[in-house]
Amino acid sequence: MAVPNPADDIRKTEFALKNGLDVALSISYPLKTLVERSDWIEDNEANSCMICNGDFNLFNRRHHCRRCGRVTCDKCCPKSFFAELSGQDRLCLVCNAVMELDSKNGKLMAADYDIMSYMQDQAMLVAITRKDMVMCGEVVRLFQNSCRNDKVREQIISWPDFFTCVKQLMKKTIAFLTAKDKSTFFTSKSELSQATASPILANCLGFIINFTATGTPKYPQFLFENEFVDILFTCLNKELDLLRRELAIWALRNISQYEKAAKAIASHADFNRAIYESLGTNVKNIQDSTLALMGTIARIVPEARVSLLPLNPLVCAKRNETMSIVQTDFKNKSILTQAYYFRLMTQLCKDVELRNEIASQNFFTLLVQTVADFEKEEEKMSNNKNAYVNYVIGSALNCLVQIIDTFKEDDDEFVQKVIKMCCSSTAFLNVITKKIADQGFYACKPASALMKFMFSQGQETIYKAITGSKGLKKEFVKAIIAATIKEFVYKEVTDNSMIVIKKIGKKDAAGMYKEIKDAVNENKNDE
């Protein structure tokens, strides 16, 4: 079984633990038919091409796009290769571009995506300025699916009309979808319908997600400065379906990596209500995005931590209720939900008041048990699943490391309680011991750091726990040796392990320390 590239793993995992970001939204697969034939634009409704605005006459005839039903000229609706393959007659240039890109998805690497050909097509540039919302929505879909690298983001950011279009589409579709009387919106077939409004809004939200799915703060900053945050909060209206609300939370999560945006989101009047309602949906993807958003807010805006778990009863939630939503049946929650929850708690526990409240809800017991449960399960998992398990273990151990590091000087009593809880589970210690030597995954870093802190802050407790189990002691010695005698990928792990060895030497030079030293010397002789 191939071991993943350690450098790639640590880069991706540390980035995710810091920002709570996925790379991008999945490809938005286009329907072969957007509008039924009965809802096509009538010939008498269009005196000019709905893309280039060229007048129709004897030589410039009308053509219907078989996908979107819009009336266009011969130039803007040629008989294309993709139309012939699908048995259709004609596709307009927008629909043709959408379907052509769809045929390439899965074959292109992220770096291969480019929109320069669209930007140089005058008809495509004009299409986004039209009042026809279905047409504009498909241009947005095209750019959403193309937005896979910073080169594309730079190309898009140079076109302000596009963002104006996205903003207008979002406002109009939200107004339509939340209106009780939708008849007032329908004036012609080029306007919105229930069948077209939801996909258009999803395209806009998907574009925002992909535009900001990068470690470069320039792009979330651009959207924040162009007032997209307020629009995204309107997408969290209960009148909208769960998919649209999920995408809105995801978009807010991405934008929150920009500090000013994070502060604006945290102080928004609807923020607490929105996150509690989103967690309460019990929909995996919504919970994941909500926890990731909360974790980023807690990291970037420390003063907002208390508001993330409100102490006083609100209309929406009490502090323990917010935690119980996630902690109930935690073992059966998704791996990402678990990882994002530990990531959030890492930040919240840095506040003493919150830490004590969180501890009273059995959070640390939950954390230790979650890691311990992976002791036997991990061996049965595929390499792919194993990577996700390491994400959970890494985020859980990182939580303990951060908490001990934060309070080791000022609250030793609390630190000792945490260490004793960790040492009370042999299964937990077995997992972190094995992770120290597992340089194929990120978890080796927090595992070695936690072991270092436990030997520094609670040496008697951890030493007794390790030497009290022959199996654990054997695994521990093997892991420490593996992290020190050969060139380990992460110097930090080697340094932490060397500190542990020195602590053991001061405690018991003739016992476990001698075993480790003998093994090291034996390895040197073999070389």
Automatic annotation (TrEMBL):
Domain (FYVE-type): residue spans on this chain: 43-100
Residue ranges crossing the lipid bilayer per the database entry: none
InterPro entries: ARM-like, ARM-type_fold, FYVE-type_Zinc_Finger, Znf_FYVE, Znf_FYVE-rel, Znf_FYVE_PHD, Znf_RING/FYVE/PHD
Entry keyword Amino-acid biosynthesis: no
Keyword annotations from UniProtKB, A to Z: Metal-binding, Zinc, Zinc-finger
Top-level taxon in the UniProt lineage: Eukaryota
GO molecular function annotations of the record: zinc ion binding
Keyword Zinc-finger included in the entry's annotation: yes
The protein, known as: FYVE zinc finger domain-containing protein
Species the sequence originates in: Hexamita inflata
